[in-house]
Design brief:
The structure is a single chain. The chain is of the alpha+beta class and 469 residues long. The protein folds into 2 domains: 22-144 and 180-280, no CATH class; 301-464, 3-Layer(aba) Sandwich (Protein Transport Mog1p, Chain A). It has helices spanning 3-23, 37-54, 61-75, 109-114, 118-133, 136-143, 149-158, 164-170, 186-203, 208-220, 225-231, 238-248, 260-268, 277-280, 376-390, 452-464; strands at 86-90, 97-99, 104-108, 311-315, 320-324, 328-331, 338-341, 346-348, 354-356, 359-365, 395-396, 401-405, 408-418, 425-435, 438-447. Strand 2 and strand 3 form a beta hairpin. Helix 3 packs across helix 5 (118-133) and helix 5 crosses helix 9. The two termini are 50 Å apart. The model is unreliable at 8-25 and 278-296 (pLDDT under 50). The structure holds zinc ion (ZN). Zinc ion binds next to helix 5 and helix 9.
Length: 469
């Protein structure tokens, strides 16, 4: 090729790419999320290990290779978010598929049988990949405003009874079909359809096959459709939305059919053992942590380390704060929730859940009204109500006071409650601040009769809070 021809080719490729970027104007961004991407991966792998103990995973090489080939073709697109995806086939006759946070994706043999062509199968897989890429599982868990989450992250780091997944299931966020982590909202479904459409088009599959397959499943009603729709509720007007999205994508000629491979694999399914549907219909329902608690250990406050007033800085995803250098950070620079506490300040209950008896937690509260826009007074009241419902002994000590945190408006509320340390009560100093993504909150927890110096450390921490512009 001549130099000129090479230049023309390169320019053409660049231009093609450029227009594609322009055309993908429906940029879908992951919503409110307190978890880091790594925590998604960690949680999903824990869940996958647990789920696979109960699920009849197909080991047949040809079937597995086939699904992995389609999965890789879709998940290698940049919009899939670079998660470590894996694809496995489950020997289940129900027409279903699911994906766990961070990438583990499962397709039932029932779904393989039901698809008319590879595009339809790819459509469901693209839809599942989109849920992972948009982080819908942890997004919905974050929006549930479980104020126990930051302590849970600490408990998971410390080990003992509480894995992250086990603690989540104690909070009612397991992996069963109806749990917050796995049951998607209609708006999440629409987003997954749109991103799935983009993934299919980029991978060379005709996205309309996704819409056709969903229509077919719906028409089937009782015969297999509902399993998928139980965790993926139909947002309505699916076909129209997908068609509109296709019109925004660059014109492509999709290979029709692509069904020879699928036919071969469908024939191969006959060699698998019969499915045992009843026993496994709820294959991943039970995910309790369920370890035996250690007896005879009654944590006491005096074992906890008082905060030093030498501070160091921690940078989280959406804020930074200085903290006592003899305390430890439990969280990640990429997440929006963190516990900073001495190890002895974290108390693990018998059921595996963790609470902070001495230390601080920081996170964001997702406003339940007002379209996610923050209202300092109302959302602080909601947050306090949430704190009280998780700890019935909690009382507000007078009214909230206005304060400034960095340059933002904030409130300081003093709460008291029983301490997880035996025979103690505690003071919880709550600071709330309006931020665009939600109500930022910082709770400083200490036993009631601690020396004045401790209150001074709290004030220093509040003054050190910074938000990125
Ligand atoms: Zn879905």
């Amino acid at each position: 090729m001549t130099a000129r021809a090479t230049r023309v080719l390169v320019l053409t490729l660049l231009a093609g790419n450029f227009f594609e970027i322009l055309a993908d104007h429906k940029q879908l961004k992951a919503g409110f999320n307190l978890f880091s991407k790594e925590q998604d991966v960690h949680l999903g792998q824990e869940a996958a290990t647990k789920a696979e103990r109960d699920l009849p995973i197909v080991r047949d090489r040809a079937i597995t290779d086939y699904i992995q080939g389609i999965g890789r073709r879709l998940s290698s697109q940049p919009q899939a978010g670079g998660f470590p995806y894996t694809f496995k086939v489950v020997n289940e006759s129900s027409i279903n598929a699911f994906a766990l946070p961070g990438g583990p994706t499962y397709v039932n043999t029932g779904l393989l049988r039901a698809a008319d062509n590879e595009g339809q199968l790819a459509g469901v897989m693209a839809h599942e990949i989109a849920h992972v890429a948009l982080r819908h599982g942890t997004n919905q868990t974050s929006k549930a405003n479980l104020i126990q989450l930051p302590a849970m992250i600490a408990g998971a780091v410390l080990g003992g009874n509480g894995s992250m997944l086990g603690q989540l299931s104690q909070l009612g966020i397991g992996l069963g079909a109806n749990s917050v982590l796995m049951k998607f909202s209609r708006s999440a479904e629409s987003e997954a359809d749109l991103l799935g459409t983009q993934l299919m088009a980029r991978a060379g599959y005709n996205p309309i096959e996704m819409a056709r397959f969903f229509e077919k499943l719906e028409a089937q009603g009782g015969r297999g459709g509902p399993e998928f729709f139980a965790s993926h509720p139909n947002p309505g007007n699916r076909r129209k939305a997908i068609e509109e999205e296709i019109r925004t994508l660059p014109q492509r000629n999709y290979a029709e059919g692509e069904s020879d491979g699928l036919r071969r694999i469908q024939a191969q399914l006959a060699s698998l053992p019969p499915t045992d549907r009843d026993a496994r219909a709820q294959g991943i329902e039970d995910t309790r942590g369920g370890q035996v608690p250690r007896d005879g250990q009654v944590p006491r406050a005096r074992e906890a380390t008082r905060p030093s007033d030498r501070l160091r800085e921690f940078q989280a995803r959406d804020f930074s704060i200085s903290y006592p250098d003899n305390w430890e950070v439990f969280g990640s620079n990429d997440s929006a929730m963190v516990t900073i506490a001495p190890r002895e300040g974290i108390v693990q209950a018998r059921n595996g859940t963790s609470t902070v008896g001495y230390g601080a937690i920081m996170s964001f509260f997702y406003p339940q009204y007002n379209d996610g826009r923050v209202d300092l007074d109302r959302d602080t009241r909601d947050l306090i109500a949430q704190l009280k419902s998780s700890n019935p002994t909690m009382r507000a000590d007078g009214n909230s006071r206005r304060i400034r945190v960095e340059r933002e408006n904030g409130l300081l509320t003093t709460l008291t409650s029983e301490s997880p340390f035996q025979g103690e009560s505690e003071v919880d100093l709550l600071v709330t601040v309006t931020r665009p993504q939600g109500l930022f909150y910082f709770v400083f927890i200490s036993p009631r009769n601690e020396p004045k110096q401790v209150r001074g450390v709290f004030r220093q921490m509040v003054r050190s809070v910074r938000f990125p512009d």
